[in-house]
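Agenda item 2: FE2/S2 (inorganic) cluster complex prediction
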Amino acid sequence: MRQSSSTTDEKEIRETVAIILQNFSPLKENLIPILQSVQSAVGYIPQPAMKQVASFLAVPAGEVFGVATFYNQFRLIPPGKHPVKVCLGTACHVKGGNIILEEWKRRLGIDEGGVTQDREFSLDRVACVGCCALAPVVLVEEEVFGTMSPSAVEGILLRIRIEKERRSGCGGNEE
Ligand code: FES
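Presented output:
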């Protein structure tokens, strides 16, 4: 019998989380590092993963959910196809990272932690990504954009749109 893709996804998530949990002792103080590892491997914290972590730490699932929702570093829904991460570490914050974040929110029409309706973009704030000399910094699909300005946001979106059209063969070849 063929499994549905969501069942397969859940199975993969369970296996990934099981591997991650092998690196931790079942201590409550490991909850945040475990959730960070899950997010880094899966891209977000799925509900089944929360239950799995809760059972590993022998704490109520509600407690894991509470921590995952309390910290805005954790994403509870899958990221978009082009995840946008705005650095708000100290150097980027000082150089106007918040203004850049506001511009992304305005341009994408979503808030932090959100995903656009077409699931193309998601938006998150992140802590220092290690390129402070380039502050303020934004990552789009792990590509680093340094010395960002609000007007550069539109340029990045335009570039992604053009690349998408080129890949789909809708680039409008003019003779
Ligand atoms: S604070 Fe943004 S890269 Fe370091």
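Discussion summary: The domain at 82-167 is CATH 3.40.30.10 (Glutaredoxin).
Owner for follow-up: CH.
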